[in-house]
From TrEMBL:
NCBIfam families, alphabetized: SAM_7_link_chp, UDG_fam4, UDG_fam_dom
Keyword flag RNA-binding: no
UniProt GO BP: DNA repair
Pfam families from the UniProt entry: DUF4130, UDG
This protein's record includes keyword Transmembrane: no
Name of the protein: Type-4 uracil-DNA glycosylase
Lineage, opening ranks: Bacteria, Pseudomonadati, Pseudomonadota, Alphaproteobacteria, Hyphomicrobiales
Uracil-DNA glycosylase-like domain sequence ranges: 315-475
Keywords of the record: 4Fe-4S, DNA damage, DNA repair, Hydrolase, Iron, Iron-sulfur, Metal-binding, Nucleotidyltransferase, Transferase
Superkingdom of the organism of origin: Bacteria
InterPro entries: DNA_repair_put, DUF4130, UDG_Type-4/5, Ura-DNA_glyco_family4, Uracil-DNA_glycosylase-like, Uracil-DNA_glycosylase-like_sf
GO molecular function: 4 iron, 4 sulfur cluster binding; deaminated base DNA N-glycosylase activity; metal ion binding; nucleotidyltransferase activity
Family: Belongs to the uracil-DNA glycosylase (UDG) superfamily. Type 4 (UDGa) family.
């Protein structure tokens, strides 16, 4: 701008189009350096009109490594007003100091590296701490997030959200600009303010439950936790309101957690089971006429070796005339102790998701492909161990009988083990989920994931996305039942 030039001592004032106009910087730098314009003779500004710069000197080649350009593009996203001048100075110096970047103590190199690191950290934080809030429903469903980065990283960070949330319409609003994805293209728009984004939605509670569940009071390290989830982000995180309470209650929570730890079955349970062994053989001979009678028979099942370590058979439960049946893999620690399917952590997700879809758990029949808990003892704990094909096949005996008595309209296979047992063939759940397969006997089997899969995902964003997909599958089930 003319005014700025009048007061400036520098020979050139470069006006870049926006704070991350790295292409503009490259073009100006090429023109200036090939005309031997020294770093101290240039001022770098963002916005305003372009000033006239000399054309690049023909025949003068600028040698610069690809690595420097790639790293400089990251540093250009830093919010420090000196960044473009620093980049030019480093470009200038590398001509006479080709090994400049090997001098770790050089002040320019140190600043460059610190800025690069800060931008990368900010990008990482954005990936980790953006929280979308849902607005609208059906076709109008949109997800909007407000985020305040330290640097100009929106364009750098946005492709990650495209990959992670490809199927959602979303917008991320920041004080520097906004990004929008309409499931086809990514567009960048003007800066926004916090009030433009919704403050909360119904998924907040889900975030809080998730966080409270993965929070392990016995491993609490407040400093490490705060550096992982810096305080400045707390105000936009639904789960952050829990943190002070969780920290304060950590001792008590740790004690309760230890008390809740899975216990080994009572030492005498094997003796009790052994006592029923002859009865089991005899009972299996007669065809049960009701689910209760079948449950009674299964309580003494010895069709595979799993009975010997488990506390008890965990048979299916629900009305005899249920039209909808859910089949899981096998009982877990809690189920084994309580003798009921899906009452542990996976059961909590299951209950919540079917409830949200308008399915009343008491109206459906819930069972497992394998009816004894298979585990590996590890200290005091019992770690879930996947049933093998022989165990699944042995237990199919009971599942076939359950379905024969129930005659449901639809069976939902929760995960690959259930699908394999129901279809008698290996099933790739990730590829085939969300659809129903009709068996030769006319029974429709709907395929979806096992809810424990969601619990195993450590990244909250990804877990939330998986939970949303699971909920979508269950809504489809609900529609199929209504149709
Ligand atoms: N996982 C299952 O597959 N079934 C249960 O009952 C509990 C956890």
């Amino acid at each position: 701008m003319a005014g700025q030039r009048a007061f400036s001592l520098a020979a050139y004032a470069v006006q870049l189009a926006n704070p991350t106009d790295f292409d503009g910087w490259r073009d100006a730098a090429r023109r200036l350096i090939t005309n031997e314009v020294k770093p101290e003779d240039i001022e770098w500004h963002v916005g305003g009109d372009a000033t006239e710069l000399p054309a690049p000197t023909p025949g003068v080649e600028l040698r610069v490594s690809r690595e420097f350009i790639d790293r400089a593009a990251i540093v250009a996203c830093h919010s420090n007003g000196e960044r473009f001048a620093l980049l030019y100075r480093l470009l200038w110096r590398q001509r006479s100091e080709p090994h400049l970047f090997r001098i770790a103590s050089d002040p320019d190199v140190r600043r460059f590296e610190a800025m690069e690191k800060a931008v990368r950290r900010d990008e990482h934080n954005m990936h980790a701490f953006v929280r979308f809030r849902k607005i609208g429903d059906g076709d109008g469903e949109r997800f909007v997030a407000w985020f305040e980065p330290d640097h100009f990283i929106l364009e750098l960070a946005a492709p990650f959200f495209v990959r992670r949330f490809t199927g959602m319409h979303w917008a991320i609003l920041t004080p520097h600009g906004s990004a929008q994805w309409d499931r086809e293209k990514l567009a960048f728009g003007p800066a926004a303010s916090k009030e433009d984004a919704p403050a909360s939605d119904q998924s907040e509670e889900m975030w809080r439950t998730y966080f409270a569940n993965i929070f392990n009071p016995a491993r609490l390290k407040v400093k490490a936790m705060q550096s992982e989830m810096p305080k400045k982000y707390w105000r936009n995180l639904p789960e952050a309101s829990l943190i002070p309470g969780l920290i304060a209650g950590a001792d008590q929570a740790a004690r309760e957690m230890i008390a809740r730890m899975p216990t080994m079955p009572a030492p005498h349970h094997q003796a009790i089971q052994a006592k029923h062994w002859p009865a089991a053989e005899a009972a299996a001979e007669t065809e049960a006429q009701s689910i209760d009678a079948l449950r009674q028979q299964a309580s003494q099942c010895r069709r595979c070796a799993l009975w010997s370590e488990a506390t008890q058979t965990v048979f299916g439960e629900g009305p005899d005339d249920a039209e909808l049946v859910f089949v899981g893999e096998q009982p877990g620690d809690q189920e084994d102790l309580q003798g009921r399917p899906f009452v542990g952590p996976a059961g909590k997700i299951f209950d919540a998701v079917i409830g949200e879809a308008g399915i009343d758990r008491s109206s459906v029949y819930v069972t497992n492909a394998v009816k004894h808990f298979k585990f590996e003892p590890r200290g005091k704990r019992r770690i879930h161990s996947k049933p093998n094909a022989g165990e699944v096949q042995a237990c199919r005996w009971w599942l076939v009988k359950e379905l024969k008595l129930l005659k449901p309209k639809l069976v939902v296979a929760l995960g690959a083990t259930a699908a394999q047992s129901l279809l008698e063939a290996p099933v790739a759940i990730t590829r085939q989920r969300g659809q129903a397969i009709t068996r030769d006997d006319g029974l429709a089997v709907f395929l979806t994931i096992h809810p424990s899969y969601i619990l195993r995902i450590r990244d909250p964003q990804q877990a939330a996305a998986e939970r949303a997909r699971f909920a979508e599958d269950i809504r489809t089930v609900r529609q199929m039942m209504a149709g």
